[in-house]
Amino acid sequence: MWCISDFEIGKPLGKGRFGAVYLARSKETHFILALKVIFKSAMEKAQLEHQLRREIEILCHLRHPNILRMYNYFHDQTRIFLMLEYAPRGELYKELQKKKYFDDTRTATYMEEISEALIYCHAQKVIHRDIKPENLLLGLRGELKLADFGWSVHAPSLRRTTLCGTTDYLAPEMIAGSPHDENVDVWCVGVLCYECLAGYAPFEAATRLETFRKIREVNMTFPSWMSDGARDLISKILNRTPSLRLPLKAIIEHPWILNHSSSDLSMRRSPM
Ligand code: ATP
Ligand code: MG
Prior knowledge:
The structure is a single chain. This protein has helices at residues 40-45, 49-61, 92-99, 104-123, 159-164, 172-175, 183-198, 208-217, 228-237, 248-251, 255-260, 264-269; strands spanning 7-15, 19-26, 32-39, 70-75, 79-84, 136-138, 144-146. By secondary structure, it is of the alpha+beta class. It has a five-stranded antiparallel beta sheet with strand order 1-2-3-5-4. The chain has a two-stranded antiparallel sheet with strand order 6-7. 36% of the residues are buried. Residues 13-18, 21, 34, 36, 68, 84-87, 90-91, 137, 147-148, 151, 157, 159 line the site of adenosine-5'-triphosphate.
């Protein structure tokens, strides 16, 4: 079993709701990783221990190039430590803020990567439920890494909601409080595609209520610079009715994705 003295602790990578994340290196092998520290007291206060345990068990078993790996975990008296794959290029959210919006190639590549990650998850009966740029990290070559798994079931990541008062990625059935399935993730892929290309989410509004109304009505307009191919894809994903949304397997076969994606995955599928 691992313990904290097995690691040299480096710079803080970010702050979580129940602790912080640090760059770390294993003393024995010099392996670099991200160590997420969660305070047990904070978890207990929020009554999330069971949830955390379940999510840890799910994450430990997921292996995909576009899902942030969790290598292992351990705990001491006061803290839980998650040994996570280090994502050197940080958050997609920050990239998007910096660049304002992404071009077709970059966005299509992300769309393919996230779709591949979700096809894998859904095959394992895991629904992410909390896809948004804040929960997407970037690997060494800029490849997408889906992080913050399954948390949203009992603990929606409140970062955006508290900071900006937005609920932009909620699917219509979530707002309605109806039962939902893996199609909520598909909805989020559509919202993400829009936000990457536009620089803002499709249903952004002054108030939460207004956003909810727009989501329910799928009331969106496209910015002038968005290409027809992207508009077609987004329109086919963002369907009010969960079962009518373009399936993930069809998203990665959509002409706009095939024409623009430069992910390693697409290279493998259609060698030059
Ligand atoms: P929660 O898990 O409770 O939702 P959170 O979303 O606030 O908490 P994380 O997303 O896990 O916390 O981590 C906080 C921040 O630390 C991230 O937004 C990211 O910037 C950074 N970070 C987390 N994990 C990694 C990692 N593996 N590699 C690089 N940076 C990371
Ligand atoms: Mg997060």
